[in-house]
Write a structure and sequence with these properties.
Strand content: under 5%
Number of strands: 0
Number of domains: 1
Radius of gyration: 31 Å
Distance between the termini: 103 Å
Largest sheet: none
Shape: rod-shaped
């Protein structure tokens, strides 16, 4: 093989390696890029942490609330028909679940008019729904507020760029405008990312709440049917 060709190939390979190293050195560091967003990145970071915390905490809580004991209502029915009200109450109190707390209130009202029993269960159900929805308004606020804060950073960055332009006069340099442009673009992208994530997280949690509420309504109707059944 021609040695000159080997030398030429080695030189090309070495040149490509050097260019690759230079490309790596010139690549954008994500952390440095985020820092170029300025102080606007701080509230966005706080909002992102809040959104993640609320989503994880509520998701786990709703997951526990969606798990239901399939034998619970049958046992309640047997206790009521046998007149074992205390046993029914004890069963309800032994289950840490929204449905069991609703049924407990209904069992404790047995003997009163059915309308009073239904109202008592409904009031407890409203309290349970309110407890399950804890944090969702905050998550919705993050979904709407994060993009607005990002746009605020955009305006601040553009003002900064125009200020540098006005001070530079006819000697405008690109690096003088880079700081404001970085702030404008980075904060906008970050705000949109946080807002989009919070929006999807909010809708996921709302869907899970509605699923649990549907089960609560079904068990309430089942309990009222038990009270309407003739005694054995």
């Amino acid at each position: 093989m021609n040695p000159f060709l080997l030398i030429q190939a080695a030189g090309q390979a070495l040149g490509e390696e050097v260019e690759g190293e230079e490309a790596v050195e010139q690549s954008i560091n994500l952390i440095e890029l985020m820092l170029k967003g300025g102080w606007i990145m701080l509230p966005l970071a706080v909002l992102s942490i809040i959104a993640v915390y609320i989503f994880v905490e509520r998701y786990l809580a709703l997951k526990r609330a969606s798990i239901e004991d399939t034998t619970f209502m049958n046992r309640i029915k047997d206790y009521i028909h046998d007149g074992k009200i205390d046993s029914a109450l004890a069963l309800c109190r032994s289950n840490n679940h929204p449905i069991s707390r609703m049924i407990e209130k209904g069992v404790s009202r047995i003997g009163r008019p059915l309308s009073d029993v239904s109202t008592a269960i409904e009031n407890v159900g409203n309290l349970e729904v309110s407890r399950m929805e804890k944090g969702l308004p905050t998550l919705a606020t993050v979904a709407g507020g994060a993009p607005m804060i990002g746009f605020l950073g955009t305006v601040i960055g553009m003002i900064k760029s125009f200020w540098e332009m006005s001070n530079a006069g006819n000697n405008i340099m690109v690096d003088q405008l880079a700081g404001g442009i970085y702030t404008a673009l980075v904060t906008t992208v970050t705000g949109l990312i946080v807002g989009i994530i919070a929006y999807f997280a909010y809708n996921i949690l709302v869907a899970r709440v509605e699923k649990v509420v549907f089960k609560m309504e079904a068990r309430t109707m089942e309990f009222m049917d038990i009270l309407n059944e003739p005694a054995r």
